[in-house]
Amino acid sequence: MIEDNVRKLREEITQICTKIGRNASEITVIAVSKVRSAKEIKEVVESGITDIGESKVQEAKEKLNILRATNYAAQNIKWHMVGHLQTNKARDAVKIFDLIHSIDSVRLAKELDLQAAKIGKVQDILVQVKTSSEPAKFGFSPQETIEAVEKISKFKNLKVSGLMTIAPIVDEPEEARPYFRMLREIKDKITQALNPKPQALILSMGMSDDFKVAIEEGATMLRLGRVIFEG
Ligand SMILES: *Cc1c(COP(=O)(O)O)cnc(C)c1O
């Protein structure tokens, strides 16, 4: 069933990309597996997904342990932290995650930089932007994002790879469009403002209900739970 869901999803992504002249290979699908089991993660990986997202450090740790204990080739999976990260979890987070999407304060960035330095890692991160007042509780306001990116870019053991946002819950996917567009516009401003110019920045936006609109607005990472695990 998960396999069917993933196949159908890939077809939909390709269709939208073809329609708007984007290349589907620019888009990374992250299967957000919070509340799903390690067994379901295996199924997803066997369907060709290479990126797994979790929203809690402890839950990710437990599933990783199960996957490792069953000799599963967990090293081929890229792990993404998509939920709010508390500063006191930074130490564990840098050990587990390839990309942390939810940097919402300079204080958290500072702690991650410190912990990454301790294990000799440059931690890939995204800066979370609060593009709407609801439901996102976390993230920098659009006005403060550029300055935050500039500050966070100075940490030697962090690499700012892009931006993330969570659109509000709306009745029609179309209503999410302004929030995705806002994130893209902030990205464009950052690309112009930063010196040296950053590489192409990631836009992590779009969930099960609104990923099609997110692709149209330039998403390069989709965070998908229900559409993959439930169809
Ligand atoms: C749960 C979650 C998702 C996936 O949500 P679906 O609606 O199930 O696709 C994406 N991003 C974040 C931050 C989440 O917590």
Strand tally is 8
Q: What global shape is seen?
A: globular
Helicity level, as a percent range? 40-55%
Spatial arrangement of strands, main beta sheet: 7-6-5-4-3-2-1-8
Tell me the distance between the termini: 8 Å
Oligomer: single chain
Radius of gyration: 17 Å
**Runs with pLDDT <50, length 5+?**
none
The overall pLDDT average reads 95
Discrete helix count = 9
Q: Which structural class fits the helix and strand makeup?
A: alpha/beta
Associated small molecules: pyridoxal-5'-phosphate
Strand content: 15-25%
The run of helices and strands is HEHEHEHEHEHEHEHEH
Main sheet properties: 8 strands, parallel
Question: How would you portray this structure in words?
Answer:
This protein is an alpha/beta fold and 231 residues long. The chain is 43% helix and 16% strand. The chain has helices at 2-20, 38-46, 57-69, 90-96, 106-118, 142-152, 177-193, 211-216, 226-229, and strands at residues 28-32, 51-54, 78-81, 99-103, 123-128, 158-164, 202-204, 221-224. The protein has an 8-stranded parallel β-sheet with strand order 7-6-5-4-3-2-1-8. The chain is globular and about 45 Å long. The termini are close together. The mean pLDDT is 95. Pyridoxal-5'-phosphate binds at residues 32, 34, 55, 82-83, 166, 207-208, 223-227.
